[in-house]
Amino acid sequence: MNLNWQEFLGAAGARIDGELVTDFGDAAGELANACDATLVSPLTHLGLIEVAGPDAAAFLHNQLTSDVKHLASEMAQHSAWCSAKGRMLASFLLFRNGPDYRLQLSADLLPPIRQRLQMFVLRSKVKITDLSGTQQVVGLAGPQAETALHSARLPVPPTPLSTAAFAEGGVIRLDGRRFEIVVSLAAAPGLWQRLQPHARPVGTPVWHWLDIQAGVPLITEGTKEQFVPQMANFEQLGAVSFHKGCYPGQEIVARTQYLGKVKRHLYRAHSASPMAAGQAIYSEVNAEQPCGMVVNAAPAPAGGHDALVVVQESFVGVGVLQLAAAGGSPIEVEPVMPAFATS
What we know:
about 350 residues; six-stranded mixed beta sheet; GCVT_N; Folate-binding protein YgfZ; Gyrase A, domain 2; YgfZ/GCV_T_CS
């Protein structure tokens, strides 16, 4: 986290643990408001990479799972970068900044992903830059989110995954009630001050819970190279194109889709015990080997903890699923349908 931004948030009441804003002094109250209040959150768990240059679109199109070449200037898309074995190295929210492209990803993956991307540039006319020190991401959610944007003199993108630019940055509409604002570091404090009268400041755990409710997984250090995109519903998020040319892992991703060999699927889970990304999930039916993994987790407003998990389908509804070890805390799961789906 940029030191200036950290100092500003601290002065605004944020409690910070490492790179994450845990809360603004009332973690329980913030979480209780997650369902029905209008909220603003510094998304310090996210990082930004910019890919610029004449070959930027072609370069990313040949690396990522989504159809980058057809990404309109005022749209965003979910995407992923896979290993040769078709396992996701990172997940992205990809959007345009004029002729350039920006990749939003988990901050803990940014340095290795940027370095690995650089290895594939070769003769392409592309420049890859870490923007985390110059750009900040702020989340805005809730029933009055559009009103808050208007009051802060910001544009309101009309449809999910549409974008709108303003002088110091841009707004991305995630779904019906959630937005991200990408803003220059210099303008971030002023933006925060304009939004705060219309939205309650909350910490990162609340935003994680909102992501879980929306059914949008985020690949992190704890889950990299664990899932083929379809295991995490990425094809339902529009993050996988089955009509474009080759990219790393494309053959495996396509074969998995057309042969119907996806045996693990994304579920929303609840447990009385804390859950964390990368934790194994076991079934009492087969205690010897894990049958799933936690993707993302957060405290739940109603108590306990919620998560997105990938679980082998044959073990769902057959015996009790358990966290971290055979005999661990029980987990209840339900299928996930994203807040929106694209073909």
